[in-house]
Amino acid sequence: MKLENFHVVSADWARDGDREAVRQLRRMVLIDGLGLPAAWEFDDADPQAMHLIARDDTDCPIGAARLTPDQRISRVAVLPTWQRHGVGTALLRQLVGRASGFGWNELRLDAPVELVPFYAREGFVPAGELFEAAGRMHQTLRRALEPASPGARPARDPGLLPAEDRASVDATRRLLLADARHILAIHLPRLDSELYSSAEELAELRRIATSGRGARIRILLHDTGAALRDGHRLVALAQRLSSVIQIRRPVEEVDLANRAGWLLNDAGGYLFLPDHDRPQGRASRHDRAGQAPLMQQFDEVWERSVPATELLALGL
């Protein structure tokens, strides 16, 4: 969404750069600027929330806001020099649009009383009595929502696909493989024996790899030596279809420190585990906006990684 000399993009809390940008904005605007408690910098809702960042034309963060699963907007923070220039309005309208796309019927937020007119211009109305929070009087506001377009199927909430234990993560991974048409991107610190090794998963990988022109499976794998020593079945498949299934090994220290695991397909689906060793994360079957920052990060790491030629040691 472009408005003059700034734009609004999705942010991924699990990504260090995005997370620090959001936290810095909150420190500057909410804590240092408004005197709110230090606890407002981050909380337990952040990993599950959908975050937006506004950036200027040099890509510097100038504003942020979030949408939490309990259907609330919160932590709206815009740098003072950018206030009254449409940044807050742009963030708010995008959050409202995302919530409508999820099929939600209402949004709520708690606003300082002096900001009630701002939110009223965007359709929010008071709900309940005034209350005090962090030393300031606040008003709860609500806005009724309609589907994104008449008769349209509501988009899936990014949290609808389960990724909370080993069984649900495995099931979600298989579903995303089945949804893929021609393209996959996989990031793995380590290729465990139970990952991408079942007959069902290998059949889907083979189907995608042989789906025709444009087929491409990219895998970023930290520990390539262990996968080769263990004789993993995915490595064997990659050796047979090496022109389509490409494996690279990260070499930069910052990339090797990333212990997350994720799977991205060309249907807008993703599975993201902040810690590869823990089967807990988030996933969506169709959420291109949520997938975009993960794909961008994957592409950046891919470009600075090296081909895993050691996995082609069999001479294929």
UniProtKB/TrEMBL annotation:
Region listing for Disordered, in residue ranges: 144-163
Gene3D superfamilies found in the cross-reference section: 3.40.630.30
Transmembrane segments: none
Organism for this UniProt entry: Dyella lutea
Highest rank taxon of the organism: Bacteria
Domain N-acetyltransferase, residue spans: 6-142
Name by which UniProt lists this protein: GNAT family N-acetyltransferase
